[in-house]
Amino acid sequence: MVRSAITYLSLRTLMFCVFIGFTIPITALAENDRPNVIVIMSDDQGVGDYGFQGNPLIETPSLDTMYSNGGCLTNFYVSPVCAPTRASLMTGRYNYRTRCIDTYIGRAMMDADEKTLAEYLHDAGYRTGIYGKWHLGDNYPLRANDQGFQESLIHRGGGIGQPSDPIGAEGKYTDPTLIKNGIETPMKGYCTDLYFDAAMQFINQSVTAKKNFFTYIATNAPHGPFHDVPEALYEKYRQVDFSPILIHKLNENRLEKENDKLARIAAMITNIDFNVGRLFEHLESLGVLENTIVIYLNDNGPNSMRFVGNMRGMKTHVDDGGIRSPLLFHWPAKVKSGNRSDLMCAHIDVLPTLLDACSIKSDQAHPIDGRSFLSLLTEDRPDWPNRSIVFQTHRGDKPQLYHHFALHNGPWKLVHPSGFGKEQYDGEVKLELYNLKQDPQQRNNVAISQPEVFARLKKNYESWFEDVSSTRPDNYAPPRIVIGTDYEPRTVLTRQDWRHSQGKPWARDSNGAWLLEAETPKSYELEIIFNHLPPRGTAAIKIGNISRTIEISAGKKRGHLLSVDIPKGNTSLSVTAEFNGQKQGPHQVILTRR
Description:
The protein is of the alpha+beta class. It is 23% helix and 25% strand. It has 3 domains: 2-378, Alkaline Phosphatase, subunit A; 388-469, Arylsulfatase, C-terminal domain (2-Layer Sandwich); 481-593, Jelly Rolls (Sandwich), CATH 2.60.120. It is built from 10 helices and 26 strands. Helix 1 packs parallel to helix 2 (61-69), helix 5 runs parallel beside helix 7 (252-286) and helix 6 (231-237) crosses helix 7.
């Protein structure tokens, strides 16, 4: 599908050039017209989950064609998990500058003062829309529609099937309830199809209005859960033996389960690919394909130990298999088919590249860490000075020096894979050094044999950590949710954004508190919601210095109501329910301004 549209335009351009008697450099086309921009990012699709990357089992014909007929950065890096990648993609800055340092319990929220790609493009006259996964804050002033997107059709939290799901639509990839411009909206269809449908409708409206558009399509596929996938593709992939792309040998029982899981993942990936083909055909039918930038990438490594080319690692790892993605860049007006670059680039470079392509200046109040890579795909001899790029993410409330990071500089990789899941590590720091050009699978640690390189990169990392940690006073304090405004008079508080205090973060017996800010004193109706049928009990509500207790009726998931006045200023809200002597937090709390 994609091939036919792209080939048609290429032939049309060639015939025109032959007719007038000379060849027009493709870099000279449409110089006076700003391009449209589409960024597509999948969730947990690994660097090896593409046909053009050598995967023999997962079919991606549209993306393979996009690779053949456009540009590609073959040495492109992202963060090991999703929200940090999204913060860097949206701002061109290291996520540690943005207060987004983890994926949940209040640490995936990005500071509202950050300037996003959507804000830059909107300020320049573009129409802006997001479809799918935002994952940088679910409440005002952190939502996508507060951060530059005029239209949004998204899910809450880090994915469908998490505690942030709308009540009654939990875990539904098919016929989900999505958040459309801030309103919970039941939908019909499969989530990925719905995102692309809405994006194409948005593009239609933009073209009709003769407005440039920025469309961000961020699928939650192929992220789990895996119970709800495109059925026809799943039935097809169930017949496939995925053992050739598994990293570890498994016993027969585990192999059967893993094969079924990969069949579901593959079905979701091929469904994304099908929609990419639909999108390209749509752009061609509207006559805007030539001057529309389309970028495709994945947000982190694969969500299982599977094929990652000649690397090692998976999601959450700082080994290369956990932080690599191809970066497909399709812009026929400027980028020749087949242009490739193996110079190191990363998620922080996407924003400055798009600003460069759209002739938009960056905001000096928000210094950008990345640099434009446009010249790598449009010039024969681009100027590209060597630099260091750092990737660091781990669980917890505050980053720790040396904990779970990788620094890249030319062929060198300095890494401390101390484990994403640990908030802190103890003991001696054992840094590793690899020459990726000679040793892409990181088998030969040369830290001892290359002492000068080791010392230089270690110093570079320490300087970087000090710099990003001092971006603002109290740099790692979590953002607050602002309540009672006209922008969001009904605030849904979920476990995604509470500050966890008891049990496992999303377990039934866990609890936490939400950090809030009230701009003015107001009265609210507070509703407590459980995700199970509770026995008879009580709930203690604490809002700053205010303490109230209500009875919880047996067998009611929701409808436990309380009127409360919340004064102006910063405060926190917690609910502790007690059933038969056991304490737990709520599933969700809804504050509705009265």
